[in-house]
Amino acid sequence: MKRNLAELLHEAAPGAAGCFNTLNLDMALAVLEAAENLGKPVIVGIASRHFEGMRTALRAPAYLKAIESAGIPATLHLDHAAPEQVDMIREALDLGFTSIMIDGSHLPFSENVDLTATVVELAKRYGAGVEGELGAVAGEEGVADTGHDAPAALPYTDAAEARRFVEQTGVDALAIAVGTAHGLYREAPHISLNTIEAVAAGVNVPLVMHGATGVGDDAIRESVRRGIRKINFFSGLLQTGMDEVRAQAGVKHNDYLGVLQSTHTRWRVLAEAQIRLYASVA
Ligand SMILES: [Zn+2]
Question: Which Gene3D superfamilies match (predicted)?
């Protein structure tokens, strides 16, 4: 059941919706199956970094067909479009994406506001929703790294700035810097729950956490309790896919279909665990 970003996050509340970037249709189907098994909404993402290489123009119709026929609310999301990728945003909207993230977090505040407001205007014409970002999340989205230190020294998102940003841009969701990073951590990061609480108190839109792979379950639950409503999870899917490749590396027979099937199962099981966790706000 196809939804736009705002609708989907509303339906997921008071829990958070999982957003899983994918590299192929099979990965997307595993994520959708996981959400269907739990009866929870889900966001299927494609990162801007992978958009061209995946030949998204060819794949998007199949993704959308899968989303439309899923038994749960789902959204096709373009993740981390950069300031110079407005053409890609337009292409994604033309293809039927109903959620766009514009990442102007590395720009000065006023330029981030102007860019994000422009994308909100554009997306509105298509009935799509927009996620902005304020306060940079460390590491690069969609890169299969081997582990980095938790970004303790990075500044957290300022609550007063976040409020002005949401008012001036009209975004449907806001990604904030709360101590997470993209990629894998060497040790669990420290999440600033105070930052989440302070930002949530001043804005009327769902907040987004990026870089959830490796964040402890308790920290995730506390973050959702304080206002996180969308959680991006990707590195763990790469990790479990590679675990399966390594597990099969010594096998002599040519059962490649078996590898595809067991990888699919691993993705589904992992996505299920994450979706269940994000939805639980006891
Ligand atoms: Zn991200």
Answer: Aldolase class I
- pLDDT, one tens digit per residue, over 195-240 is 999 999 999 999 999 998 889 999 999 999 999 999 999 999 999 9
Question: Measured in angstroms, how far is the CA atom of residue 139 from the centroid of ligand 1?
Answer: 9
Token pair of 231, please? 């959680």
Domain ranges for the chain, please list them. Answer: 5-279
Position 279, amino acid: A
221 CA distance to ligand 1 middle (Å): 19
Active site includes 145?
A: no
What CATH class does 5-279 carry? alpha beta
The answer to the question of whether 103 is labelled as a binding residue is yes
144 torsion bin: left (phi>0), alpha (psi -120 to 50), beta (else)? beta
How many Å apart are CA 179 and CA 132, to the nearest integer? 17
Burial of 100 (0-12, 13-18, 19+ CB in 10 A): buried
Ligand 1 centroid to residue 280 C-alpha, Å: 22
pLDDT tens across 122-145, in order?
A: 999 999 999 999 987 777 666 665
Eight-class DSSP state of 54: T
